[in-house]
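User: Please predict the structure of the protein below. I'd like the answer in structure-token form so I can feed it into my own downstream comparison script.

Assistant: Understood. Taking the following sequence of 267 residues as input:
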Amino acid sequence: MAITMYQADRNFVSPANDAALYSAILNNTSGVLANRGNNFALTIDGLVVSIDTGQAVIGGRLIEITALESVTVPANSSGSICLVVDLTKTNTVTGNAGDTTYSVAVNQVYTSAVIGSLTQDDLNDGGFIYELPLASFVSTATSVTLTNTTGYLNDTGWISVSLKAGAIFGSNGYAQYRVRNGHVFIEFYNINPYKATNQNQAFTIPSAFAPSKNLNYFAMVSNSNGGTTGMHARLGTIANTGLIYFNYDGTYNNEYGSGQLDYPLDK
């Protein structure tokens, strides 16, 4: 027969079959699972970057670091600290399948400092290598600077961010963001970008959740100025650095009572 069902009685399900299913369930996206271990927290000692415990899914394959992993970054370079799935490698088997002494050394996943552009093949359609960045780096002869770039596959919950100096009115202004299923949600309350830097800056979210290119948008906001209230569309920009700012509107003086916006995570 030319048709089969892998999840059938007595049938054999290979790792590739299993991964293809999970990848489809996750909309063929790869990323870090939030609140697993220490979320791959990164620490630096000279040119050595240590990666703490955590879990990620790459091409439908569950990856886990259970103890600190270390990567040595080349001096005077730039690139990304990555989790790498490399299906060109062969895993090492000890013992016989079914025996209590049977074990597998998985060589097809490792950590690496990748220089230049990343390889991100479709592992479920003939590809072999996928490099998932946890952070970008720039190194000197003796030290490393990291910028986190990882995105989460599941829900981070609401996370508060600080408003720019002066960008608040009233006594309870705030801004917060949330990443859920590859989508970024942002909401704010009682902000006044007109009183902040360049009369337009509001707040900044982590660059890992910023769009890959500057994104212009209209946010529906509830404005209040001298007794004038109502819902209005306001043009703003989410920079690829994570900075969020609004175009100044003299009519309402940019006093924003509340607002929400959202966009798909594209990196």
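That's the full token string. The mean pLDDT is 87.
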